[in-house]
Amino acid sequence: MSNENRTEISALGEFGLIQHLTDHILLTNKTSVKGVGDDAAILKAPENETIVVTTDMLVEGVHFDLSYAPLKHLGYKSVIANLSDVCAMNAVPHQILVGLAISNRFSLEAVDELYAGMLLACNHYGVDLVGGDTTSSRSGLVISITAIGYEAEEKLVTRSGARENDLLVVTGDLGGAYMGLQVLEREKSVFQAAPNAQPVLEGYDYVLERQLKPEARRDLHGLLNALDVKPTSMIDISDGLASEIKHLAECSTVGFDLYEEKIPVSPKTIEAAKEFNLDHVTCALNGGEDYELLFTIKPADYEKIKGNPSLTVIGHATADSMGCRLITRLGETIMLKAQGWNSFHQDNY
Amino acid sequence: MSNENRTEISALGEFGLIQHLTDHILLTNKTSVKGVGDDAAILKAPENETIVVTTDMLVEGVHFDLSYAPLKHLGYKSVIANLSDVCAMNAVPHQILVGLAISNRFSLEAVDELYAGMLLACNHYGVDLVGGDTTSSRSGLVISITAIGYEAEEKLVTRSGARENDLLVVTGDLGGAYMGLQVLEREKSVFQAAPNAQPVLEGYDYVLERQLKPEARRDLHGLLNALDVKPTSMIDISDGLASEIKHLAECSTVGFDLYEEKIPVSPKTIEAAKEFNLDHVTCALNGGEDYELLFTIKPADYEKIKGNPSLTVIGHATADSMGCRLITRLGETIMLKAQGWNSFHQDNY
To answer: Which end of chain A is less packed: N or C, by CB atoms within 10 Å?
Structure first.
């Protein structure tokens, strides 16, 4: 952003900034009674529905790197990550609240970009931004989002309902977001070595979009309703398939057999992985940030979901004592390791 | 904290830390269906009640200074600040979600202290900690709390219902938290000049407690119910009386006359202010962090509240065109200025 268009946030102050960011926000859901502008937002759950609520914190230098994540994309993605958690309960997201801590390194125009991305995601998913807090920070940018959704209690799906022989199903394809990150990291190091070099991003559209502008599987809720299938357990894939399978196993007290050949990976992801000398299955297992949904269904429901292009059966639940196992293409059986992302192991990023 | 008792957070990892912090949490409210441990918490609003939800972000070096704010107190206060917002809607707080970004400067023992303070506040206010997120940070500590409460929609009070001639009422007394901060700042500068000096904190218990361990006026909800009074507007005093009066005025499109002689200030606060050569009324007007509630009532309700030791009538609503005015002890009328706390004016702290 050029300095000519730079407005200092301190020129508006905290109240001025909040007003500037939220002035034009319209509420679209009947469940949003009152949005920003009071001590709290007022919401009304749909009749006979329960509330699900989740919160996530994204920290500059830990969860994102502004040298290659455009602020608008970052805003979009930070909302998606939270909506995905609501979808993973089989609920429908209706509202978000946004907390921002911003250092004076950021101009008003930069914050506008971030907010534009958040509001774009809200618009795309029919979600209202109903509240938040905006404050200064002594160092980097911190984004905290709380998402709220609703569904009848008996329709909600937790992580703990999987039973032996249930089928393990995943939406979409995996590993793309991780490969997108590899491409961005490579271009960043090229840029650091030669600041005049142009980034080579052509041909990587799919994996870059998976990394920079992921989507939440809000569609699964309607699809499952239409198919008359209620998952027995569900979780979203934020840290990597292996890590999430182990979460389901632990919460449901079962084991899982996962078939390597069944793991859905896009040809674009496979191509990028080859170029980086990476095993695409490893990327799918441990990459994270795909925001697909992983769930289990009763074996009897297989007929209802088979052939659906969005859904892939990748394994089944076994006895707890069997643990989580990967059955390789060669028929070998190896114990599944979760190397999922952990912000406290800072060398991961 | 001595190094002997220092456990690195990275030894537990993100999941291990969350489990360690939340393992022993019990849910006490019927509205808390499922707490931590899934993609989202599941809540159920009491029959015929609406939901209020608010979020706040506290940033090290901006909102708190760990050189004099003990972590347990900080945890307590960060919860209180959010519960106070729920109370300001005339709702009853039931749940919180906690987001923490922690640098590796903090040991597990330090995070335990912070969490202990939060859980103490939860326990004291009958609130359940139902979810959260814990991540690493590259620099300071950031605390993000979301609080959720409930009340019938017709009982909720916003900032916008004050009408001309309504009485302006405040709970408790004001300015104490600000004077507590002055005492702590003084001792900090003494310590910086002479690190072996013992802090002189005796005799300042009241103002220190107001600063370090404030309480939310959860009691007002029951008191107003018992008195059969519904405020016409309400706000909590986090930024200072003057700033909050101006918020009520703006949201309700009225003016206010505020009587200096009526502003409740504790003798302990007056004494401390004198010592610091500060005007105690200025402290009450602009100090902030008192977490008292400021509200308006219909003139007809005066008889119901008069004589209650927790409530003080400090002024009344006037026509919008009159603005917000302070009537001094000498009978002068001056326009009220809000110098409330603004995190983007960093020289304020």
So the answer is: N
- Residue A347 located in a structural domain: no
Tell me which residue has tokens 């984004």.
Answer: A143
- Partner-chain residue, chosen from A15, A52, A236, that has the shortest CB–CB distance to B41: A52
What is the identity of the amino acid at B24? H
Report pLDDT digits (tens) over B141-168.
999 999 999 999 999 999 999 999 999 9
pLDDT of residue B343: 65
* Closest chain B residue to the Cα of A43, Cα to Cα: B51
Inter-chain touch A156–B85, beta carbons under 8 Å: no
Give me the residue from A10, A43, A52 closest to B50, CB to CB: A43
The pLDDT tens digits of the residues spanning A321-338 come to 999 999 999 999 999 987
> Which of A109, A124, A155 is the C-terminal boundary of a domain?
A155
Q: Are residues A9 and A146 in the same domain?
A: yes
CATH number for the domain including A11?
3.30.1330.10
A21 and A70 assigned to the same domain: yes
Which residues, in sequence order, are CB contacts of A206 under 8 Å at separation 6+? A176, A266, A268, A269
Mean pLDDT, residues A37-65: 94
Is residue B235 within 8 Å of residue B290, measured between CB atoms? no
pLDDT for A348 equals 30
Task: Determine the average pLDDT of the residues in A237-252.
Answer: 95
ipTM of the prediction: 0.93
CB contact under 8 A, B138 and A53: no
Interface contact A57-B100, CB threshold 8 A: yes
Kindly state whether residues A91 and A132 are assigned to the same domain. yes
Per CB-CB distance under 8 Å, the chain B contacts of A349 are none
Query: Which pTM value belongs to this model?
Result: 0.93
Which residues fall within 8 angstroms of residue B233, CB to CB, at 6 or more apart? Answer: B157, B158, B159, B160, B161, B162, B166, B248, B251, B252, B295, B296
Judgement on whether residues A144 and A206 belong to the same structural domain of the protein: no
Same structural domain for residues B136 and B178? no
| Cα–Cα dist B87/A326, whole Å | 52
Q: Which of A83, A148, A143 is nearest to A111 (CA)?
A: A143
Residues B100 and B50 in one domain: yes
Task: Specify if A298 maps to a domain.
Answer: yes
In a domain, A334, yes or no: yes
On whether the CB atoms of residues A262 and A326 are closer than 8 A, the answer is no
Give me the pLDDT at residue B1, please: 44
Q: Comparing A74-83, B196-205, B289-298, which segment has the lowest mean pLDDT?
A: B196-205
Domain that holds residue A56: 3-155
- Give the residue from B86, B91, B75, B171 showing the smallest Cα distance to B123: B75
Alpha carbon of residue B157 to chain centroid: 18
CB-based contact B57 A159, cutoff 8 Å: no
Torsion of CA B263, B267, B272, B275, to 10 degrees: 100
Number of domains making up chain B: 2
Same domain, A19 and A145: yes
Q: How confident is the model at residue B87 (pLDDT cuts 50, 70, 90)?
A: very high
Q: Is A99 exposed, middle or buried (0-12, 13-18, 19+ CB in 10 A)?
A: buried
Q: Are strands B142-151 and B92-102 parallel, antiparallel or unpaired?
A: antiparallel
Alpha carbon of A133: minimum distance to chain B alpha carbons (Å):
6
**Nearest-CA distance from A238 to chain B in Å?**
10
Question: Among residues B179, B146, B165, B200, which one has the least CA distance to residue A41?
Answer: B146
Joined together, the tokens standing for residue A51 give: 């509330």
Residue A276: how many other CB atoms lie within 10 Å: 13
| Per-residue pLDDT at A345 exceeds 80 | no
With CB atoms and an 8 Å threshold, state whether A40 touches B53.
Answer: yes
Q: How many angstroms separate the Cα of B134 from the Cα of each of A101, A173, B36, B120, B325?
A: 16, 28, 12, 19, 45
Whether residues A140 and A192 fall in one domain: no
CATH number of the domain that residue A176 is part of: 3.90.650.10
Q: What is the 3-state secondary structure (H, E, C) of A133-164?
A: EEEECCCCCEEEEEEEEEECHHHCCCCCCCCC
